[in-house]
Design brief:
heterotrimer; A alpha/beta (202); B alpha/beta (335); C mainly alpha (542); A: 202 residues; alpha/beta; Rossmann fold; five-stranded parallel beta sheet; four-stranded antiparallel beta sheet; 6 helices; 9 strands; C: 542 residues; mainly alpha; MetI-like fold; 2 domains; 24 helices; 74% helix; 0% strand
């Protein structure tokens, strides 16, 4: 269970943000709201790219607010630029796996699961934006951290492809017991997933 | 088996040890000189071979980038320098060199052994070659060169000359002193008159000479012996030196031994060797200068100009006035 | 890619690399200052000359350097735009790989090339004579010096400016094509914002190079009226053995250059970009194909080629001939080549490695403001430290400790490394900074840190820049004539030293052949590094 306990954050210039919710393992949470309201900031705070002002972040009772990003039980898939331009797709995936030996078949299986089998040897610049996002998702899947954050990761995909990704996401969340937070401005996404929605406002 | 090999091995061992001991014992004479002297086409290799046969030693020439560089290097190294001898300073540097206190009297008798146009007597420095500075021109391009320094200074503007910087080159300094000795206190004006004819002032002798050979200038300040090189090596006599009525300034190159030389005996022997015919006979066709000692001159030297007067300031005069005169030169040419 | 404000987050606190980097930079500067100090300490007797003349010389040096820099920029900027614009149609891109050659050429070789083009018996004069016109008058003087400085520095500027232009996102060009922006509007809104960040750093670099110019001034200046501080340092040190004056002048040079560097880099925090990237999918702009536009581009390119490439061709032409065979039979040639290559490879690799450490340190602390300028400053200042003073000072420092003859190769390597360091640093730092924004966030999130990040992410990504930096540093070392003039000897001969010796005799033909040999070797060395880096980085495109 992810606990976001009375988190507050302030930007230089006076904008203040407050968050307070919990999310169980295996559950998906959609974060919605107008632009500028702090959706990405929330993800950055959980991932550790911003430091919070007050509050507490914990997973399964263990607090991780003071830890640097690489020690947190989090994987983030950004809106873009998830891949290293000079590595192939396969290398982009395996480089994040911390030396843990994952069988090549498992990697290929994950690629197939997300409908991008055959792109393993390509460079990021040789595939489309949507395909790049899915490679990032494969990586997140195989990295197997309890918390998965997605920042508008599928906004560029067409609806049928997006549905397929959401199916995969659902399966990942349930079978791997991940807590998934995704930011999206499209209300169809949350409706399709039939998940909880966190609506942020001023 | 063992008994027959052992004496052989013992002999071999003794031979090897004695050879290596001998190699370790061959003394090394270290001579600092300027780069062209030590190069393959310079006098260095022949002199090295001859002296090594005489002395049972190993001669090591250390080539530095210029004669001024030689003095600078020994000054930097100080009393702990490994040099035995410096070879390649000239009279203009003698006072400064003597004042460093690094050099020792050479103990060589110069009487009757030198053939210089001026009197030379010094207990620290031995002359090894000399030459006249002169303007060299291409006789196929210039039929009537100026016949005196004054004529050059007042010549029409279409004569282009290239000279060297007196601060960085010995011929450059030579020309400065030449003008000074002819014009005295009017030297500044003379330089100002000469200035429009000067194409450029180069850092070293070769920069100017190659420019002349490329046709960038009509005359270059060089040595009166430069034409001999072209006669012997290139087979042409079109390059000539212009003889000036006022006489020509000289350069006398000298050598000295260091006070703290690691091999003082060998050094003294070499200093004496300098004026011997073995050394002197090499000079004309490798260094392209006149030998300071008595030696035969090659045929190519026969046609060279013979100046009416050899001008040379004493080392003390040069040391005392150099910076004032260089300053005067700078001001005259900066207008 | 959206640019987001990045306040100093917890996790970005600099790690152990940073103090090391800073320490190295400061240490090297301290070494340079120690060398100057050694000089002053040995002095004692002898005239402590100078006086009001020094200020006049300093002012002239600064004037000459500023003019040279601005002229080089004035040439390089239109050519950079022309090159970039016509890369596809006129294949103007081939100019770029050759652009580094003038920078690394030994100055004596370059000067002979320049005279071979612009001298009274040079290409241009011969051409004019063919047309029945007067030959060129002698060029020596301030004009020749400026021309030479432009020859040396415009190609470097071209490469950097071109790199900046190629970093403009293609989308901006698409918008501009769609809206039909005029040439001036395009320059103002799109090109200039991309060029501006790199210009101050570039100006600082070129200013420093022109300020410390020495051989060129002596060869082309025409007389004592055209002089620089460095020339005076040289004469004080080598001719008058006035160490105190040399030390004073060296300090003055350091102060002036330091002030200029600080001034220029306050204008922008970033240094210049690295290797240019190819542009795909950039559409035609309005007015690109107009006659006026094409003529201007053609003129700029032609001028550039005349000024920077003809001298190289002159060296080629002179060097080819029977003397090449003569020279190739010298055993000294091969010995000197091996020595030169060993020194060049050592100093090049060393310079690149240290530059990498320093550049990484700089990038990590990019937010820290005040703490980085000692790093930037000290590195830029190596260019301002007179090579002669450095060499002599090191000699004095070390002669107590060891036999300098044995040390000679080491001293030459270290000296060359210090001279190449600013270049290597600038090349790497530009690229690392550009990558940091992309990589930092990603690597932090994925747990890629320290050695792993360096080996698997950073090094492969900057492989082309590493190749360029190493190639440039090695090539600079290969052509060095200043430091080796202090320490060379018959036992320790590098190629420039051999060339120097050849020139001291009447051997014009051999000298020209040697110059050609040296130039070719420099080119091959540089290409070697570039190709090796390309293969190691496994990039599929240039």
């Amino acid at each position: 269970m992810l606990e976001v306990d009375r988190l507050s954050f302030e930007r230089p210039g006076g904008l203040a943000f407050h968050y307070d919710f919990t999310l169980a393992a295996g559950e998906i949470l959609a974060v919605q709201g107008p632009s500028g309201v702090g959706k990405t900031t929330l993800l950055d705070l959980i991932a550790g790219f911003e430091s919070l002002l007050t509050g507490r972040l914990a997973w399964d009772g263990i607090e991780f607010s003071a830890l640097p990003p690489w020690e947190r039980p989090v994987t983030t898939v950004f809106q873009s630029d998830n891949l290293f331009a000079h590595l192939s797709c396969r290398e982009n995936v395996t480089i994040a796996l911390d030396g843990a030996t994952i069988a090549a078949t498992e990697v290929d299986g994950a690629f197939a699961r997300l409908d991008i089998d055959g792109l393993q040897a390509r460079l990021p610049e040789e595939i489309s934006g949507g395909q790049q996002q899915r490679v990032a998702l494969v990586r997140a899947l195989l990295r197997d951290r309890p918390i998965l954050l997605l920042d508008e990761s599928f906004s560029a995909l067409d609806w049928p492809t997006r549905r397929g990704c959401f199916d995969a996401l659902q399966e990942i969340a349930t079978t791997r017991r991940m807590a998934v937070i995704f930011v999206s401005h499209d209300e169809r996404d949350a409706a399709y997933l039939e998940c909880d929605v966190l609506k942020l406002d001023r | 088996m063992h008994t027959s090999l052992t004496p052989v091995m013992a002999i071999v061992a003794v031979m090897v040890t004695s050879l290596s001991l001998q190699a370790a014992e061959t003394p090394v004479l270290t001579i600092y000189t300027y780069d062209s002297f030590a190069s393959e086409w310079g006098p260095g290799p022949a002199i090295e071979k001859t002296f090594e046969a005489e002395c049972a030693c190993d001669v090591n020439f250390v080539a530095l980038d210029s004669s001024i560089g030689i003095l600078g290097r020994v000054q930097l190294e100080g009393p702990s320098s490994k040099a035995d001898i410096v070879l390649g300073l000239d009279t203009n540097l003698m006072k400064t060199a003597r004042d460093t206190g690094l050099f020792a009297p050479h103990g060589v008798s110069l009487d009757g052994r030198t053939s210089l146009p001026v009197a030379f007597a010094d207990d620290h420095f031995v002359p090894f070659d000399w030459g006249y500075f002169a303007f060299v021109y291409n006789s196929e391009a210039m039929a009537t060169p100026p016949t005196s320094l004054k004529a050059l200074v007042n010549a029409p503007d279409d004569i282009r000359i290239v000279i060297q910087d007196p601060r960085t080159s010995t011929p450059g300094l030579g020309l400065l002193l030449w003008v000074r000795s002819v014009y005295g206190d009017d030297a500044g004006e003379a330089w100002a008159s000469l200035s429009p004819r000067i194409v450029t002032v180069t850092k070293g002798w070769w920069d100017a000479y190659s420019m002349f050979l490329d046709g960038e200038a009509d005359m270059v300040l060089s040595y009166s012996t430069s034409p001999a090189y072209h006669i012997v090596v290139d087979g042409t006599d079109k390059y000539r030196a212009a003889a000036f009525d006022e006489g020509h300034y000289m350069q006398v190159e000298v050598a000295a031994m260091l006070k703290n030389a690691p091999q003082p005996e060998l050094a003294r022997q070499f200093m004496d060797f300098i004026l011997s015919s073995d050394f002197q006979s090499v000079i004309p066709t490798t260094n392209w200068m006149y030998p300071a000692g008595k030696a035969d001159l090659p045929e190519a030297f026969d046609g060279l100009i013979q100046p009416v007067e050899a001008r040379l300031y004493s080392p003390e005069d040069v040391a005392a006035n150099k910076s004032a005169w260089v300053g005067e030169w700078q001001r005259a040419l900066s207008q | 890619m959206a640019a987001r404000a990045q306040p100093i987050a917890l996790w970005r606190r600099p790690g152990p690399i940073s103090p090391v980097g800073l320490g190295i930079a400061i240490g090297l500067l301290a070494l340079a200052l120690a060398a100057i100090g050694a000089l002053v300490s040995v002095a004692g007797h002898g005239p402590a000359g100078g006086g009001g003349n020094i200020l006049r010389v300093a002012a002239f040096t600064a004037m000459q350097a500023s003019l040279s820099t601005l002229l080089a920029l004035a040439l390089a900027l239109p050519v950079a735009r022309a090159c970039w614009r016509r890369a596809a149609t006129w294949r103007a891109g081939w100019l770029l790989p050759f652009s580094f050659l003038p920078v690394v050429m030994p100055t004596t070789v370059a000067a002979t090339g320049l005279i071979g083009v612009w001298g009274q018996r040079g290409f241009v004069s011969d051409y004019l004579a063919l047309l029945g016109l007067d030959r060129l008058p002698p060029i020596y003087g301030l004009g020749a010096v400026l021309l030479a400085h432009v020859f040396f520095n415009a190609p470097l500027m071209l490469r950097v400016l071109n790199g900046a232009l190629t970093s403009v996102p293609a989308s901006q060009w698409r918008l501009s094509a769609q809206w039909g922006l005029s040439e001036w509007e395009r320059f103002r809104q799109i090109e200039w914002p991309a060029l501006w960040p790199v210009i101050p750093g570039l100006l600082a670099l070129v200013f420093l190079l022109c300020f410390t110019s020495f051989s060129l001034i002596l060869m082309l200046g025409g007389g004592p009226a055209v002089t620089t501080l460095e020339v005076n340092i040289y004469t004080a040190l080598r001719f008058d053995f006035d160490l105190a004056l040399a030390g004073k002048l060296a300090l003055l040079q350091l102060v002036i250059c330091g002030a200029v560097v600080v001034l220029l880099t306050r204008l922008t925090g970033r240094s210049w970009a690295a290797t240019p990237r190819p542009t795909h999918g950039v559409p035609h702009q309005k007015g690109d194909t107009s006659t006026l536009c094409r003529s201007v581009d053609a003129l700029a390119l032609a001028l550039f080629i005349i000024i920077t490439m003809l001298p190289v061709i002159a060296i080629l032409v002179r060097g080819l001939g029977p003397y090449l065979i003569v020279v190739s039979e010298w055993p000294a040639l091969y010995r000197a080549t091996v020595t030169s290559l060993v020194i060049a490879l050592s100093s090049g690799s060393l310079a690149t490695m240290i530059a990498l450490v320093l550049a990484s340190a700089r990038t990590r602390r990019s937010d820290a403001g005040l703490a980085v300028w000692p790093l930037d400053l000290s590195i830029s200042l190596y260019l301002a430290v007179s090579a002669i003073v450095l060499g002599t000072g090191l000699f004095i420092l070390l002669r107590q400790v060891a036999d300098v003859f044995l040390l000679a190769p080491l001293l030459v390597t270290v000296g060359n490394m210090l001279i190449a360091l600013p270049f290597a640093y600038r090349v790497l730092e530009g690229r690392l900074a550009a990558l940091a924004t992309a990589h930092d966030r990603l690597c932090a999130g994925l747990g890629l840190r320290g050695w792993r990040r360096l080996r698997r992410v950073t090094l492969p990504a900057i492989a082309p820049e590493l190749g360029f930096a190493a190639g440039l540093s090695s090539a600079l070392s290969l052509g060095d004539m200043t430091i080796v003039a202090l320490f060379g000897s018959q036992q320790f001969q590098t190629l420039p030293w051999l060339l120097y010796q050849t020139m001291a005799r009447y051997r014009a033909g051999e000298a020209a052949a040697l110059s050609l040999w040296l130039l070719t070797l420099t080119f091959l060395l540089f290409m070697g590094f570039t190709l090796a880096a390309r293969m190691l980085g496994r990039r599929r495109h240039a």
